[in-house]
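sorry to bug you again but im stuck and you know this stuff better than me. what follows is a protein written twice so to speak, once as letters and once as structure tokens for the fold. id like you to explain what the token line says about the fold, in plain words if possible. anything you notice is useful, everything is just below.
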Amino acid sequence: METTSDQNLICYFGWGRRKYIEQTFPILLNTIRPQDRLLVLDQEMHNLDYYAQFKDQIDYLIFTKKNYRIGPAWELFKYIALWLKTIKHSDVRWFPDYINIIESDALIERGDWIDKLIPLFETEGQKIGIVSGYLGDDDPNTKVIRMIGTTRIKIGSQGVNVIVRTTDFLEIGDYPNYTQDLYFQEKIQDKGRVACFPCIKHIGELGKKKGLIL
């Protein structure tokens, strides 16, 4: 029986927000499976000293002098995936089946979140283009349109957590500077709906509601 690969390139990124990172990053590290790889992007290098503590657990660590916003960050993830595709040396050859984007203020609430989410791409009777662990039920653009067991089928997604097949991710053109969520959904909607199993909390959004400075 053929085994289907489910390798994830987990792309964790954010600008500053040290208090959130200290909450979310250690939990993320403990959920990385042997077949996955972790890419961390630190815009403006606010957390250089913090990430350096985990250099043996981070596969790709990227620092930038400026904050290039969300759209260009997604564009960078695309080119990193293309770069991985070109590596020919057998001792480092690895290529993801999925691009798994998770923002630095996304708090994982289940340790087996990846194993819970990836199977949602094969939700019976549904054509799924995006999978997410964040429900985003306060956003009209992420409205749940159908329940299949514990799986929510939605009309849209938010960038707090987005998992997409690498082949689909690489087909999308340049990502603009403005918010990426709806743009991404528009470009990939022909690939299918969004499937969600809630297992991630957006603590950054909670911080905004409480008047915290981000």
